Amino acid sequence: MRAPRFLFVDDEPNIRVTLPIILKQEGFDVTTAATVPEALEYIAKQKFDVLLSDLNIGQPGDGFTVVSAMRRTQPEAVTLILTGYPDFETALQALRDQVDDYLTKPADIKYLIESIKQKLASPRPKLPPQVKRVSTVLRENAKPIIEEWFEAILLDRDISQVDLSKKERINHMPVILRELADRVDSEQFEPNHQTRETARQHGRQRREDGYGVAEIITEGRVLHNIISKTLNEHLLSIDLSTVLSDMMRLGEGLHEQLEESVRAFARAIRILSIAYEPSLEKTRALLLRQEGYDVTSALGSAEGKHVAESSPFDLFVIGQTGPYEERLGLLRWLRSHFVSARVLMLTSPHEQDFPGAHYVHRVGDPEDLLNAVRNCVPLAPRRQRIA
Questions:
Q1: Any residues with CB less than 8 A from the CB of 280 and at least 6 apart, and which?
Q2: What's the rounded Cα separation, in Å, for the pair 358 and 379?
Q3: Nearest 10 degrees: CA dihedral of 110, 114, 115, 119?
Q4: Would you state the pLDDT for residue 125?
Q5: Could you tell me which residues come within 8 angstroms of residue 188 by beta carbon, excluding any fewer than 6 positions away?
Q6: Most buried pick, 25, 175, 240, 364, via CB within 10 A?
Q7: How much is the mean pLDDT over the chain?
């Protein structure tokens, strides 16, 4: 009778040396692997009766990958997993459903040997693994993803200071997750019109809510992390034949949703650029429009006042080439008539200060101007922040 073939996977050198010695003394033919790729290569080339894998080999949870490969290619093998996190309940529930047993480190060697021999002697019936697309996992776990996301974003100081109800914070999330799942199922890398419009609407809404660009990006990053964590916890049930392409589409979808939201946020910002030379009027307006802002331009103080009264603006930019007293008078007029808007004053080198301006920027290269505008507008939220 041949010795049972045993595959042991762990990245710790000491245990890879000591445990196989004990296993061989108990009559097992032991093969060891230190990495996931090495383990997958053994599984593809050799037949095994037992798999014992660490839960975290090179990355957190990547032992799931080894177990999943064994379950699908050699479902009759006894599969066991080692974990250093006995309180990781979500992962342990997945393990209970997908493996024959799990042990917490440091493992009880006597119990390990007895458990393996018992399971080899009386194997339990095993159903073929029921695999799912990434999109299915997203849909099935939408509610816990949203709840975990909501709790996580409130840990961000800037986001928590925006006075919004829970409903106002999460009401976009079911649509976002549904469209991400649909994107995966569509097997297309290009987003459709509805997906883009949903992201744009979110960006415009967050502008009304009083967010800055940094807060929108934080929301997107947190969502990405929680989705990745959720998929990792359900890796044993995910179809490996589609997981790479599914994850690529999911990543592209998350990135494009964030990009469209930020663009829409910027386009919701209305700027009146007041210049005193025609060439500067056109150049500055073109530069700001290319950045995505909704720009109206005016030539001179009189036209600037007229345009300012015709439509609401978030930011006034006053050019640097007009007479000092005229520009100072325009600044004071804008401050008295439009309390909630911000005023960015462009100045020449060595020019005296402009008291009352929200921001003063000495003109340099175009990127300096764009940075000045970026710094101005997010500081003008339309919704009250919590003190």
A1: 319, 321
A2: 10
A3: 160
A4: 63
A5: 249
A6: 175
A7: 84
In angstroms, the first-to-last Cα distance of the chain is 76
219, two tokens: 């929301």
Whether residue 321 contacts residue 283, with contact meaning beta carbons closer than 8 Å, is answered with no
pTM, whole model, 2 decimals?
A: 0.53
Q: Which of 329, 322, 265 is nearest to 294 (CA)?
A: 265
CA atoms within 13 A on the CB side of 208: 8
Is the Cβ–Cβ distance between 48 and 70 less than 8 Å?
Answer: yes
For residues 111 and 102, the answer to whether their CB atoms sit within 8 Å is no
Structure tokens that stand for 68 in this block: 């999943």
pLDDT above 80 for 107: no
- Helical H segments across the chain, by residue range: 13-25, 36-45, 63-73, 89-98, 109-121, 134-140, 142-153, 157-160, 166-170, 173-186, 193-209, 213-233, 240-267, 278-290, 301-310, 324-337, 366-376
Peptide bond into 125 cis (omega under 30): no
